[in-house]
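Retry 2 of 3 after timeout on previous attempt. Resubmitting structure tokens to design endpoint.
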């Protein structure tokens, strides 16, 4: 494939996994860009210059135009976007675009660009990563097995031993005390993160756990893309103590203190310095529906190590497909473009050999 792959934030934690995977396949065609040019240069040196460093501030129109017009065919976005201006710059040039953002407010705004993307011949992929991403595909796998899916619960078991960047921890805190709506029996229901819990049995040593509501975007997306009446996402940490600790704080109203900047800064510092536990993650979808008119349940799961790494490898898998294939223009969530979730996850396991899946 001709052209370049521009990875915005490509020298960051997740971006490095994407850049390394793609530069192995397309040496000299991958550009890693961000505000800190020195970091981009340092990372390029670590790859034996298989990637090209560049400076980019996505709010600087001149920098954006200059870089995008330099034979860029695909953009992979690894930093938080506050609006859709940069995405629209890509679409207007017919450049394909992949975004690993987990914020539903942004993803829902990107959805509105579908007509523009079709007009300019641009393929835009969102909900790419772990959650959203693989969780959407697990829900899609449930849909492919059951004739009708009435409800799907998505469960996440997250190890606390992995080191995350400040933006990831910021996202967790922003959603820890959030109120949001979920679809239940076709109707909207107002809920709160850590406001209630549900028990599930994870595969392997994790076993039976209580998981708590959390505002992941997958639950908002799959009811639309897969036509499911009810969907909810629940999460727990590998440390049962800290999982229940947040629940108790929620019940006591202490999480309201996160509105105070100094308190939020303290929590960020604690999350950034606390790395006790494992680096294991487990994603599981449990669906209720029918087969041959009879009530049936179905469970599938994916597990592995280092969620940031797997997020990057999912994005690399998606980016390589978009870069090398003729894809339909428009805006798609991952489960809309990859309609064979089992095949995608099996292919991903070739990149991440420690990945385990159960269908």
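Retry 2 succeeded. Sequence:
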């Amino acid at each position: 494939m001709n052209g370049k792959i521009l990875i915005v934030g490509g020298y960051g934690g997740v971006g490095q996994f994407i850049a390394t995977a793609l530069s192995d396949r397309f040496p000299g065609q991958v550009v890693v860009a961000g505000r800190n040019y020195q970091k981009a240069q340092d990372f390029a040196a670590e790859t034996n210059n298989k990637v090209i460093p560049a400076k980019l501030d996505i709010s600087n129109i001149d920098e954006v135009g200059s870089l995008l017009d330099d034979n860029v065919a695909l953009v992979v976005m690894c930093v938080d976007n506050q609006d859709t201006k940069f995405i629209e710059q890509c679409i207007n040039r017919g450049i394909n675009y992949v975004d690993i953002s987990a914020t539903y407010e942004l993803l829902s705004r990107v959805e509105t660009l579908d007509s523009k993307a079709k007009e300019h011949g641009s393929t835009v992929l969102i909900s790419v990563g772990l959650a959203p991403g693989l969780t959407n595909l697990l829900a899609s796998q449930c849909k492919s097995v059951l004739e009708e899916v009435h409800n799907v619960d998505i469960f996440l078991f997250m190890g606390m031993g992995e080191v995350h960047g400040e933006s990831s921890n910021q996202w967790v805190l922003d959603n820890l005390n959030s109120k949001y709506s979920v679809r239940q029996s076709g109707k909207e229901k107002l809920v709160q993160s850590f406001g209630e819990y549900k028990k599930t049995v994870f595969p392997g040593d994790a076993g039976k756990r209580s998981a708590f509501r959390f505002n992941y975007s997958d639950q908002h997306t799959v009811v639309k893309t897969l036509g499911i009446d009810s969907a909810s996402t629940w999460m727990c940490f590998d440390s049962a103590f800290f999982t229940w600790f947040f629940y108790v704080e929620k019940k006591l109203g202490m999480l309201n203190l996160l509105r105070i900047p100094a308190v939020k800064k303290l929590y960020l510092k604690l999350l950034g310095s606390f790395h006790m536990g494992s680096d294991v993650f487990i994603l599981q979808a449990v669906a209720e529906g029918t087969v041959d008119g009879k009530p049936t349940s179905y469970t599938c799961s994916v597990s592995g190590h280092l969620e940031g790494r797997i997020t990057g490898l999912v994005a690399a898998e998606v980016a390589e497909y978009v870069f090398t294939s003729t894809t339909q223009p428009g805006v798609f969530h991952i489960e809309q473009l990859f309609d064979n979730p089992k095949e995608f996850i099996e292919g991903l396991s070739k990149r991440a050999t420690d990945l385990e899946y159960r269908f």
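Attempt log closed. The chain has two domains: 4-129+308-340, 130-306.
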